Amino acid sequence: MYCSRLFVSLQRRKKIILLAAIDMEQLLHYVWKHKMFPLKELKTTDGRSVEVIDPGLHNRNAGPDFFNAKVKIDGTLWVGNVEIHDKSSDWYLHGHDHDSAYDNTVLHVAGVIDSEVQTTNGQSLPQLQLDVPHDILLHYEELQATDKYPPCYKIIPELSALMIHSWMAALQTERLERKTDDIRRRAERCNGSWEDAYFVTLARNYGFGINGEAFEDWAYHIPLSAVGKHRDDLFQIEAIFMGQAGLLELETIPGQYQKDALNEGYFSKLRNEYQYLAHKFSLTPMNSKQWRFLRLRPQNFPHIRISQLANLYYERKASLSRLIECDTIQALQEMMRTHVTPYWETHYTFGSASASNGKNLSPFSVNLLMINTAIPMLFAYGRHASKEQLCDRAFDFLEQLRAENNHIIRMWKECGLPVKNAGDTQALIQLKKEYCDRKDCLRCRFGYEYLKKKS
Question: Helix (H, G, I), strand (E, B), or coil: what is residue 192?
Fold first, then answer.
């Protein structure tokens, strides 16, 4: 009996905490925007009937919550702004009574009416107490409380193919837009050079997550204008690339391999060449401590990835102009393929010999680089240069590439969501990171379907 009472008490406490965490004002915004009103006549606090013709344009910036709403109050049509609060007294808490931007408010909506409200000229506004329908509140609590991912898994099998397709298409565009913002910032840091921004983006994704930030910082340390003067010499390219990574300092080599590295000679040759080029171009390397090796497969060691990038650059495959020329998925795949220089075929780090292996970039890695580097760059540059054909090509390539396979995608598949190509997987990654992880169900179309379903 005691345990049963304790369980009920804990459940009640959990619900109280959940309700306190819910932003009721945002939920009221949602109910108003989608006209999910209770099944009863809407009336102002003084008894006048209210009919919502158009809830207005939702404003997420400063000013009234909804612009140009159309509401009938006692049969009279009013066109203007609508402000929504959890409690009507929040009107004064937020200082709207002293802000003329709110003078054109035609209706004040609140979950709790606890005071009259007035504009800057002393005019009293009509008020509507809006209750969140029970089913919507219940379903929203479920979405916020569930630990299972995705929280709306119950509704997925009931969704129409058209609805899923339209939302996935929007999410896919959102993700490309977000990556476009990242690329645009890199171009600004590169003094407006989109060629350099592409190299930085490519390098970042060669970190494959763990060393992504280190590779991006490394790319900013590469003076491409100087490297371009030695573009026909792969050894010199690799010397600059390794040297600027801080990997040509003896102390970066584990003690047991230092002697072998020196005896082999390649490390010393690279270091001597780098010292000459560093003096010539006034180069300063990055801090080698930024590189991470723990729990990293040898194939992903910075030495291997940098050698692959050196080959890619040497073969003229690391340029934006070459990327733009790729008009088929096969051409794009060929452009992304690369391998290491001869020394690294038998090494993973300096002095540490391994079995001979060409260490070509795997098809899996090529696929990821196309999805995360080449395609976003095509889209971003297309937007920048007003070349819609490049943006269209980016979408076409995503549809042609095979779907990614990771825990996020597998979870959605288990819910019954069809996943056909890389465009779908990019959309679902965007959905998880920007909506599910933030519990932002009110902006999600799947969340909308879940909220409006009948209990």
Answer: coil
> Residue 370 carries which DSSP code?
I
Write the CB contacts of 54 (distance below 8 Å, at least 6 apart in sequence): 68, 69, 70
Work out the number of other CB atoms within 10 angstroms of the CB of residue 421.
15
- With H, G, I as helix, E, B as strand and everything else as coil, classify residue 328: coil
- What the block records as the tokens of 77 is 């049509």
Nearest to 222 by CA among 210, 209, 206, 208: 206
Confidence (pTM): 0.84
**Terminal CA-to-CA distance of the chain, rounded, Å?**
31
Helix (H, G, I), strand (E, B) or coil at 37: coil
Q: Give the H/E segment covering residue 66.
A: strand 66-73
Residue whose token pair is 């051409």:
331
| Pairing, β 76-87 against β 105-112 | parallel
370-379 per-position pLDDT tens digit:
999 999 999 9
User: Could you report the per-residue pLDDT of 321-361, keeping only the tens digit for each?
Assistant: 999 999 999 999 999 999 999 999 999 999 999 898 889 99
CB 423 within 8 A of CB 398: yes
Q: Are strands 57-58 and 66-73 parallel, antiparallel or unpaired?
A: antiparallel
Count of residues for the chain?
A: 455
Note the pLDDT tens digit of each residue in 367-412: 999 999 999 999 999 999 999 999 999 999 999 999 999 999 999 9
Report the candidate in 93, 132, 138 with the shortest Cα–Cα distance to residue 111.
132
Helix (H), strand (E), coil (C) string for 103-145: CCEEEEEEEECCCCCECCCCCECCEEECCCCHHHHHHHHHHHH
Distance CA 359, CA 345 (A): 6
Rounded CA-CA distance 320/197 in Å is: 9
Q: What angle do CA 116, 121, 123 make, to 5 degrees?
A: 40
